[in-house]
Amino acid sequence: MPGRRTSWALLLALGLLAVGAASFGAANAPTIRSARLPPSATRSGSTTTGSVPSSTTTTALARSGAASTVPPGPPPPAPPGPLAVDAAAWAGNGDLAFVSEGTLEVLGDGGSLTAVTGPSGGFDSNPAWSPDGQWLAFLHSVPAGPYAVAPATLWLVHHGQSVAREVTPSGVGRFAWSPVAPVLAFATAPGAGAPSPDNLFTDVPGQAPVRLAGVGPGFGVENLAWSPGGSTIAYDDVVAGRAATATTPPVTPVMSIGTVPAVGGAPTTVYQRTDGTGLTLAGWWPNGGGLLFWEAPGGGNLPDGKPLYALAAGSTQPVPLAQGLARPFALAADPVASTEAVVAGLNRSIWAAGRGIDLCPLPAGSCEPIAVPAGDEALAPSFTSSGTLIYATASVSGPFGQEGGADWTAGYLAEWDATNQLWALPPGGTPAPLSQAGAGSLLGQPAASGDRLLVVRDDALWLASLGSSSPAVRVAGPLFSNAAPSGYYGEVDWAGTFAWSEASGPRGGSADLMDAGFYPPIDEVP
After folding, report:
1. Alpha-carbon separation of residue 194 from 54, 66, 474 (angstroms)
2. Which of the residues 64, 293, 356, 427 has the least number of beta carbons within 10 Å of its own beta carbon?
3. In this structure, how many other beta carbons lie within 10 angstroms of the beta carbon of residue 98?
4. For residue 183, how many other CB atoms are within 10 A of its CB?
């Protein structure tokens, strides 16, 4: 469906404008599909990317926001080639759904490659498998102006099929599968910033969605999360304040974190603020013993970072853990110990010195930073089923240091991506680099069992094994229309571009478009 891919490229171009200087963010031979031909058409080609030349002169918006010439830097990387998958390398590893240049593709356990159809125009995002692997949910969006997209729609496709059906005609802001059953929870998106109370629904595939009454009485639910046992859904909500008039009393703003039984019933407010402090739900503790949320004093977005808090069940006193970018992919839950890995550190720039990963035990104790090589930062935490922490390090020195002069051009972003390295920290052990993942590895997603690992590298997905020194094998790519989609405000939510049926962790997505979104208008300084 070429229209969907074209719109995805358009979205990336709009992202470049919106953030100013930032770049937005079963055969033995690989199967290759053209990015501009119908799914049934193929052509030969290669997605192997050559080395990036070392320097060029680039004109961009400097950090001051004024037009200027930045120091010589690398040119933008070559555009991605056509879609190519290695079915033989993937065989026997479950089902892999991934978005390639805007279109959702499914690489089956047996090596079949299927383009999902149903929505027209625009682009797909945030695929997520149901826990039984029988249903794939995803979001679909279309541009709605020079700096915006229309509310995303939520779609479902059954395993082994290619035609998706729309879950609801309403726009959807966020969705998540129950961790124990094929049941979706989703929050519809408000229109034009208007309140959207009672906007939380559950959906069993094949049945009509069910509204959870009384949930989100203010502007409506924005973020949601299932409890580990699947019995309860947590959410956040905002009741806007209003000044007094001659005939009405003032209304105090109320920011709330609440829970509701997944089968319906009376919601419970577990924490709220009435002083203008914003609250953003982050999720549950790994053992379900409490909730995590970010606070924003004054209700602002605080793009440089927000404090993360832990609130034990039954308590009214949250405990501060760390400060960092408020992103779902900046957190990871240890399945063995009740510990949360948090990407901590302030400053919104992607290569901000001082950013690292803290391990925070729950019930809340003192967070401890992991060791990071000098001149690097730590990002993208995840845990294996045995409790080994997987994370990436990346450069905050040289051209990416405080005085290094690197700007947020596609060339510099691609060069920065190449500095990434995956590491493994076993419980009670010491960190060791995962050389089998390869240089430039941005993310590792472990399987729910065993030692297999999906790696994001060079705008593609690679399969590696923690128990083997054999190099990772390229499985599928490209993912984006732009070979360097990382942006000024932080790393791309790469996990939001693919879903592995055999991976662990939350299964859902956000219409924030991989949390890169559209940040300031073009005339606003980052």
Report:
1. 49, 35, 45
2. 64
3. 25
4. 22
What are 80's two structure tokens?
């991605």
Q: What pLDDT does residue 491 have? A: 65
How far is Cα 88 from Cα 493, in angstroms, rounded to an integer?
Answer: 27
Reported as a single tens digit per residue, the pLDDT across 221-245 is 999 999 999 999 999 999 887 787 8
For the chain, how far is it from start to end, CA to CA, in angstroms? 35
Evaluate the CA torsion angle 224, 100, 518, 23 in order and state its sign: positive
Beta strand 319-324 pairing with 452-457: unpaired
- Of residues 352, 398, 412, the one with CA closest to residue 377: 352
What the block records as the tokens of 196 is 């959207």
Give the model's pLDDT for residue 476: 97
Does the pTM surpass 0.90? The reply is no
Angle at 401 between CA 396 and CA 404, to 5 degrees: 140
Cα–Cα distance measured from residue 446 to residue 332, given in angstroms and rounded to the nearest whole number:
12
Residue 523 above 50 pLDDT?
Answer: no
Q: How far apart are CA 466 and CA 424, in angstroms?
A: 9
- Is-contact 216 195, C-beta < 8 A? no
pLDDT of residue 264 exceeding 50: yes
Phi, psi dihedrals of residue 400, rounded to the nearest 5°: -100, 10
> Is residue 79 reached through a cis peptide bond, with omega within 30 degrees of 0 on the bond before it?
no
Tell me the pairing of strands 200-203 and 184-188: antiparallel
Residue type, 444: G
**CA quadruple 181, 187, 188, 189: dihedral, nearest 10:** -140
- Which pLDDT belongs to residue 513? 53
Beta strands in 163-267 (DSSP E): 165-166, 172-177, 184-188, 200-203, 210-211, 224-226, 232-239, 254-261
| Residues near 11 by beta carbon (within 8 Å), at least 6 away in sequence | 24, 102, 123, 141, 143, 149, 513
Sign of the CA dihedral running 264, 269, 271, 277: positive
Instruction: Tell me if residue 434 falls in helix, strand or coil.
Output: coil
Whether 9 shows a pLDDT value over 70: the answer reads: no
375 and 394 in contact (C-beta within 8 Å)? no
How confident is the model at residue 402, as a pLDDT?
86
Q: Label residue 264 exposed, middle or buried (CB < 10 Å: 0-12, 13-18, 19+).
A: middle
Higher pLDDT, 352 or 452: 452
Cβ–Cβ < 8 Å for 374, 36: no
Strand-pair partners of 60:
68
| Length reported for the chain | 526
Q: With H, G, I as helix, E, B as strand and everything else as coil, classify residue 16.
A: helix
Residue 40 has pLDDT above 60, yes or no: no
Q: CA gyration radius for the chain? A: 22
The DSSP element (H or E) to which 417 belongs, if any, is helix 410-417
Tens-place pLDDT, residues 116-168 = 999 988 889 999 999 999 999 999 988 777 667 788 999 999 999 999 999 99
Confidence (pLDDT) at 205: 96
